[in-house]
Design goal:
The complex is a heterotetramer of chains A (about 280), B (about 100), C (about 100) and D (about 160). In chain A, the strands form 3 sheets. Chain A has a 3-stranded mixed β-sheet. Chain A has a two-stranded antiparallel sheet with strand order 1-2. Chain A has a two-stranded antiparallel sheet with strand order 3-4. In chain A, α1 packs antiparallel against α2. By secondary structure, chain A is mainly alpha-helical. Helix content of chain A is about 40%, strand content about 5%. Chain A has 2 domains: about 180 residues, Cytochrome Bc1 Complex, Chain D, domain 2, CATH 1.10.760.10; about 80 residues, Orthogonal Bundle (Cytochrome Bc1 Complex, Chain D, domain 2), CATH 1.10.760. About 5% of the residues of chain A have low confidence. Chain B has a single domain, classed as Immunoglobulin-like, CATH 2.60.40. Chain B is mainly β. Chain C has one domain. Chain C is about 80% helix and about 0% strand. In chain C, α2 runs antiparallel to α3 and α3 packs antiparallel against α4. Classes of the chains: A mainly alpha (about 280), B mainly beta (about 100), C mainly alpha (about 100), D alpha+beta (about 160). Chains A and B meet through α4 of A and β2 of B.
């Protein structure tokens, strides 16, 4: 059914990446990017892109479906809910820091804070909420923060991702910085994120099956079989950078937040399906 | 404290399908931690599923069963509303148990 | 790749008249410091392998293996320079492949 | 904030006054009700410590297993990760009393061994660890005789996951 069409992929790779339009707006970028991936995988429905390699490879999809039948992150999500609802020492809870009590809002993250002029990711907002209530911040990449973020994502299941880039020079600059990071080759292997996830999705890189960029942030935080636990998106950024022998940047650094801003914007309209399992 | 066992048991036309996920590291004893010393073997040895005091399924597990192990089994003779008891014991003598109602 | 570097390292050390002001240790400090500063210059484009070589150079130097220390420092410098070149090239190169510039 | 595991550990200690079990690491909340803890005395210790498929089968059942096409195994062709390989075994063979899962090239072949009491269907699904590309063997005892099915699974170690 969703067999990766080798011919098509070859055609996709040969597809001349649309010539850079001078100063295209984020929305134009997004539309062009969706079109690019639709041409590359014509028989993959738009919503299915959130399932990455599992939308392109039958053998992988079957393994994924048996994992999702009773996913190993269920304990972490239950723990995340317990942590989310446990009041801080001052009696308040996370709900007080978020609109709608933090329920069903994952699809709006990350957003650009026009006062502070910075990208606010969900994990950053979680720790800022803790600090505002006199609590110690959590570690960024795994553990409690991943469980809480996974619980909050689970309350947004199916809601379309809705990232906004306001017509504000700082917001556009953050978006552009994230885009530049995404397309810049780095590390001794000299790959960019796009080398794998834009130019070669649907192909094998050794024994790994490359997923398309479209839809990637929709399934975070993710429980990877390799980690044996949940991990946040910035843990994945650092891991990928390390794989190409580029020095990873600190989690929740401005560069990684701008990167998340750009990448998530590209998935606007796709449903939140986090948390999810991955290899 | 949430139990370490999550269960879904559903009966239709006489056959109960039970799925369980157990929270356990299932360390094999063959893995080293980042400091280079071996993580000792720590895994569930026996897991039983019983209905009306009788075992309907017994799993003898070794260290090659994945972390946070998953199990599915099917049996006859139980109906909606019946209660099942799922218990496990590991190689360190720790154990846990929970009950589930068949939907 | 290491062998030629080692060879160059050795021949260089031999050709330098012994009376030269810095002995092999002196040259090492110089190369090591240059490698470090070039590595910093790479900014967000630092390579993990450069920091590995810098560590290897330092530990070789600490344990008195000057030959290895020099080879590692030289390799670190070469890698650091390549990462700086990558940073500069990518300043504009990314636009050619980006969807929608 | 009390670390989740420590809280579980503390509660375990208070509750475990009954029996002086060696307390495991605090990771797993210890709720020791000695009464319902399953009896692990007939856990096949030696079988779980035997390398090699045939040696394990003879250790476990004291007989050889013959290949049978009545056993269906649902396994991936290429495992996405050797740490979590989903496997499902089902058979049409009659009066099944036991199913075993073996991973040939694991340090010890036996991964899991299930008692199938009367009234329980000859079916089981599990997630196993596989050290490398190798055969997964399912052994079924039907009418007191041992049958087996074999299927190879490719496993690669490491990788970025894609």
């Amino acid at each position: 059914m969703l067999k990766a069409k080798v011919i098509l992929v070859a055609l996709g790779a040969a597809l001349a990446v649309p010539q850079a339009l001078a100063g295209a707006s984020p929305e134009e970028d997004r539309k062009e990017s969706v079109e690019y991936f639709k041409q590359m995988f014509p028989d993959v429905p738009f919503e299915e892109f959130v399932n990455g390699q599992y939308a392109l490879n039958e053998d992988r999809r079957k393994q994924w479906e048996s994992m999702q039948d009773f996913p190993p992150y269920e304990f972490a999500v239950a723990e995340g809910q317990e942590l989310f609802e446990t009041p801080f020492a001052n009696g308040k809870t996370y709900a007080s820091c978020f609109e709608n009590g933090g329920i069903g809002i994952r699809q709006n993250y990350p957003y650009f804070d026009t006062e502070k002029n910075e990208v606010i990711t969900l994990e950053l907002a979680i720790n800022r909420c803790r600090e505002a209530n006199g609590e110690e911040p959590l570690k960024w990449k795994k553990g409690a923060i991943a469980s809480i973020s996974a619980y909050m994502a689970s309350t947004s299941q199916g809601k379309p991702i809705n990232i906004k880039v306001p017509d504000d020079p700082e917001a556009l600059a953050a978006y552009q910085d994230g885009k530049k990071f995404y397309y810049s080759r780095r590390g001794q292997l000299n790959f960019s994120c796009a080398s794998c996830h834009v130019q070669n999705p649907g192909k094998w890189i050794r024994a790994d099956f490359l997923s398309p960029a479209l839809g990637q942030p929709a399934n975070f935080p993710v429980h990877r079989a390799k980690w044996g636990e949940l991990g946040t998106l910035h843990r994945r950024f650092a891991g990928c950078n390390n794989n190409v022998r580029a020095e990873p940047l600190p989690a929740q650094s401005e560069e990684y937040r701008n990167l998340e801003y750009f990448l998530t914007y590209m998935s606007n309209g796709l449903p939140v399906v986090g948390p999810a399992t991955r290899p | 404290m949430a139990s370490s066992i999550r269960v879904r048991a559903v009966e239709n036309n006489g056959v109960t399908s039970l799925k369980a996920l157990v929270r356990h590291p299932m360390d094999s004893g063959f893995v080293k931690d980042s400091a280079g010393n071996v993580i000792p073997a720590h895994f569930i040895k026996v897991l039983t599923i019983s209905h009306n005091g009788k075992n309907v399924f017994v799993a003898n597990w070794g260290p090659a069963v994945s972390k946070d192990p998953f199990l599915e089994c099917r049996f006859k003779g139980a109906k909606k509303g019946d209660e099942l008891t799922i218990s496990w014991i590991d190689n360190e003598g720790a154990s846990d148990s929970t009950t589930a109602t068949i939907a | 790749m290491n062998k030629p570097l080692l060879a160059i390292g050795i021949s260089l050390a031999l050709s330098v008249p012994l009376a030269a002001q810095g002995g092999p240790k002196e040259d090492f400090q110089e190369v090591y410091a240059k490698a470090q500063s070039t590595h910093q210059d790479a900014g967000n484009f630092q390579w993990t392998i450069t920091s590995d070589r810098l560590k290897a150079a330092k530990s070789a130097a600490d344990s008195g293996d000057h030959e290895k220390a020099m080879a590692m420092a030289k390799e670190a410098l070469k890698l650091a320079e390549e990462s700086v070149a990558q940073r500069k090239k990518q300043k504009e190169a990314w636009r050619q492949v980006a969807i929608g510039n | 904030m009390i670390d989740q595991r420590r809280r579980g550990f503390l509660k375990g200690v208070l509750g475990a006054g009954v029996a002086g079990f060696a307390l495991g690491s605090g990771i797993v909340p210890l709720r020791v009700e000695a009464a319902t803890a399953p009896d692990a005395s007939d856990w096949p210790q030696k079988a779980f410590r035997t390398p090699g498929v045939d040696e394990t089968i003879s250790e476990l059942y004291g007989m050889e297993a013959t290949e049978s096409d009545q056993i269906t195994m649902d396994l991936p062709t290429i495992a996405q990760n050797g740490a979590v390989v989903p496997v499902t075994v089902e058979t049409a063979l009659p009066n099944v009393t036991s199913i075993a899962l073996l991973v040939a090239k694991n340090p010890n072949a036996l991964a899991a061994y299930f008692d199938i009491p009367d009234g329980t269907l000859p079916f089981v699904s599990n997630r196993l660890k596989m050290a490398e590309t190798t055969d997964v063997v399912a052994v079924v005892i039907s009418d007191g005789k041992a049958y087996k099915a074999t299927q190879n699974v490719k496993v690669t170690v490491g990788g970025c996951g894609g």
